[in-house]
Amino acid sequence: MLRLRPYKPGDAGTILAWCGDETAFRKWTGDRYASFPITEADMNEKYMDRNGDCPEPDNFYPMTAFDETGIAGHLIMRFTDAEKTALRFGFVIVDEAKRGRGYGKEMIRLALRYAFEILKADRVTLGVFDNNLPAYRCYKSAGFRDSEKEGAECMLLGELWKIIELEMAREDYFQ
């Protein structure tokens, strides 16, 4: 049974090990880190010391998914508006050994429950690169729909990567 808990600094090594190459790392982090690879200290500094680069206090929620075998996944949540009604998921990643077995979908469902029932968000958004079809399919199977908002583009590894924007409204979650 998968559960979700707040991120702990000791989680960094396990999570970073899932990014075996720079392509996987960039699908996970985009351009949010200047270099690859990063260290556990780099990840913990961003999360613990810099509030995930969010200027507002109490706005950044890094979470770790785990089961009886250990850490299975990770994601962050952050509010994107001052009223704290719109929440954005990011840095979503699942243990390579557990991919394709429903862990990602279950982690997203747990995060949506937390977002709507605990944090009382009205809307949850996320972005996925168009070259990451397994993740896109996972989010769609968890109930996200394509947003009408145009996705940004990001220059990564010498290529232009397009972001597909997805969203879920509170009323869709509670149907």
The gist of it:
The protein is α+β, with helices and mostly antiparallel strands and 175 residues long. It contains six helices and eight strands.
3D architecture notes:
With 175 residues, the protein is of the alpha+beta class. The protein is built from 6 helices and 8 strands; from the N terminus they run E-H-H-H-E-E-E-H-E-H-E-E-E-H. Strands 1, 2, 3, 4, 5, 6, 7 and 8 form an 8-stranded mixed sheet that branches. A hairpin with a 2-residue loop joins strand 2 (60-67) and strand 3 (70-79).
Low-confidence stretches: none
Main structural class: alpha+beta
Rounded radius of gyration (Å): 15 Å
Q: Beta fraction of the residues?
A: 25-35%
Number of strands: 8
Number of helices: 6
Helix content: 25-40%
Key terms:
175 residues; eight-stranded mixed beta sheet; alpha+beta; 30% helix; 31% strand
Any chance you could write out the topology, listing elements then pairs?
Blueprint: E1 3-6, H1 12-17, H2 22-29, H3 40-49, E2 60-67, E3 70-79, E4 86-94, H4 103-118, E5 123-129, H5 133-141, E6 145-146, E7 153-156, E8 159-169, H6 170-173
